[in-house]
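Bumping with the actual sequence this time:
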Amino acid sequence: MRTLGIILVVLGILGFVYQGFSYTKREKVVDIGSIEASVDKKERVFIPPIASAIAIGAGALILLTGRRSTA
């Protein structure tokens, strides 16, 4: 459980820092016989700040409750 808490906190911090991620998608535009044309489109996925805050809070809660039960 401690590992999960650490992962959630790190992902939440990364979500605040980068606010999302982007990737490239190849899309076929023309396909006529043996002639093919494609375009690379850059897509962006936005991560809302509230999701990052929830991840940090959940990770911290897991870390704190895990520590209490072992003490």
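The tokens above came from a reply further down the thread. The mean pLDDT is 90.
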